[in-house]
């Protein structure tokens, strides 16, 4: 058996909560195997990361300053702090300026007593591959998305099938294809039972590199860690509720949601008659006049960070109104909570399709579609109320088991 510290892995997460958290869980899992882990991040992210890893003796934090450039709001070192979605692309681009400090760190490590075995870096930090190759360190790419959505995104990128159809109503033929990435391996936060049928197609895009699906990474967490804060008011209230009676609502850490839309959610939840726990990201938004009285005792609105996996694992929770961020999907599937799917941005609509059509583990919120427009349409209180009732009214929480493909692929 390996003695402590013979192996050393470098982890470099992209600076977004949904990307950082699973890699922290992976770091802890490696640390429990006596593998030294160095996490590279910027000072603005270091504080919350330290909270997660401080009790793990083999996990170290290495800070590199976040580049300051015109056009990005000062002090924003995590996408969840950006004032709106339009800053996301410039934010991703600015991380390329971390190349030189990253190279310096790797060079120093290579001369140390424990040179790194490999670097695991986020797929948004593709530029790390060139540095790793130059220094002869294998790079594994980390995918915080599901296999299905990555396979589709890669197929669209390589084969451009959308250029071959005449209208948005024609089905796309999604072929497999040649490699577009040359990393040593691929680490995916998913599990084979969930997405087995899509793994070969996904792997076909990587020059023979293997994809390791070792998610859900959050389940690597030791149970005693999940037990923190069990005395809070919310937890006490949840314990008192009937099993499967409460709907949990969260739209993740990224999407911008207008006050008008938040008002509709408040009315919709209230009209549904089901008790709810709703985590709201917008600190400025307040409940519409008169609502506070109405929801008293029936709903919790929380504007702070919560332990979402812990909430989802409570017996009282019978459904999750979710934006279908991949981490939320994994947490919901793992705790057996069906989803009312309301995808908003990024690959979330693909995740929603996997949940609703592939797994039969949820229903979709009804909304008007504006064809050919990326403009978000307000989801009405009636649609939310109806969706919550439909989801919470389902008998049992069983799903189909292993996913069937919601797409045909050529
Ligand atoms: N955060 C987190 N885990 C925590 C506490 C906070 O991931 O235990 C996230 C939080 O959502 C935010 C970032 O870390 O995106 C900074 O949180 P903090 O509370 O420090 O700042 P604020 O909410 O005032 O921006
Ligand atoms: N999360 C949490 N507490 C909060 C808000 C979010 O624990 O108050 C966690 C949630 O459990 C998930 C992650 O943050 O693990 C959000 O990632 P996801 O992929 O669901 O959505 P994103 O924020 O990337 O859109």
Automatic annotation (TrEMBL):
Designated name of the protein: Glycosyltransferase
Any one GO biological process: anthocyanin-containing compound biosynthetic process
Organism classification: Eukaryota, Viridiplantae, Streptophyta, Embryophyta, Tracheophyta
Gene3D superfamilies: Glycogen Phosphorylase B
Organism: Hevea brasiliensis (Para rubber tree)
Protein family (similarity comment): Belongs to the UDP-glycosyltransferase family.
Record carries keyword Transferase: yes
Keywords: Glycosyltransferase, Transferase
Entry annotated with the keyword Glycosyltransferase: yes
Pathway the protein contributes to: Pigment biosynthesis; anthocyanin biosynthesis
Catalysed transformations (reactions): an anthocyanidin + UDP-alpha-D-glucose + H(+) = an anthocyanidin 3-O-beta-D-glucoside + UDP
Annotated InterPro entries: UDP_glucos_trans (IPR002213), UDP_glycos_trans_CS (IPR035595)
Enzyme class: transferase
Superkingdom: Eukaryota
Pfam families xrefs: UDPGT
GO function terms (MF aspect): anthocyanidin 3-O-glucosyltransferase activity
EC number: 2.4.1.-
């Amino acid at each position: 058996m390996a003695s402590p510290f013979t192996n050393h892995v470098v982890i470099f997460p992209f600076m977004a909560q949904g990307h950082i958290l699973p890699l922290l869980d992976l770091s802890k899992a490696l640390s429990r195997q006596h593998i030294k882990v160095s996490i590279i991040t910027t000072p603005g992210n270091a504080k919350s990361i330290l909270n997660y890893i401080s009790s793990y003796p083999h996990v170290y934090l290495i800070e590199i300053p976040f580049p300051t450039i015109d056009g990005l709001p000062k002090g924003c070192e995590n996408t969840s702090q950006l004032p709106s979605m339009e800053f996301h692309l410039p934010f991703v681009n600015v991380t390329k300026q971390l190349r030189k400090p990253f190279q310096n760190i790797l060079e120093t490590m290579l001369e140390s007593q424990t040179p790194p075995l490999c670097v695991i870096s986020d797929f948004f930090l593709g530029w790390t591959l060139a540095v790793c190759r130059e220094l002869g360190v294998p790079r594994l790419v980390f995918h915080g998305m599901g296999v299905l959505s990555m396979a589709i995104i890669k197929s669209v990128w390589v084969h451009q099938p959308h250029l071959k159809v005449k209208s948005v109503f024609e089905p796309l033929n999604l072929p497999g294809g040649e490699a577009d990435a040359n990393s040593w391996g691929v680490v995916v936060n998913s599990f084979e039972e969930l997405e087995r049928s899509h793994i070969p197609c996904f792997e076909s895009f990587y020059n023979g590199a293997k994809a390791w699906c070792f998610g859900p990474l959050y389940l690597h967490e030791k149970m005693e860690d999940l037990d923190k804060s069990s005395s809070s008011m919310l937890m006490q209230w949840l314990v008192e509720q009937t099993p499967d009676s409460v709907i949990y609502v969260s739209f993740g850490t990224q999407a911008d949601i207008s006050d008008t839309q938040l008002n509709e959610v408040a009315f919709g939840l209230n009209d549904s008659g089901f008790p709810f726990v709703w985590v709201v990201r917008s600190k400025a938004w307040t409940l519409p006049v008169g609502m506070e009285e109405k929801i008293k005792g029936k709903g919790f609105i929380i504007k702070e960070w919560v332990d979402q996996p812990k909430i989802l694992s409570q017996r009282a929770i019978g459904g999750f109104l979710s934006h279908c961020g991949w981490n939320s999907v994994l947490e919901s599937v793992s705790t057996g909570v069906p989803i009312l799917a309301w995808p908003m941005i990024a690959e979330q609509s693909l995740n929603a399709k996997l949940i609703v059509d592939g797994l039969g583990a949820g229903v979709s919120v009804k909304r008007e579609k504006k064809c050919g427009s990326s403009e978000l349409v307000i989801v009405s209180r009636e649609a939310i109320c109806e969706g919550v009732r439909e989801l919470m009214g389902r008998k049992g929480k069983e799903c189909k088991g292993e996913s069937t493909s919601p797409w045909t692929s050529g």
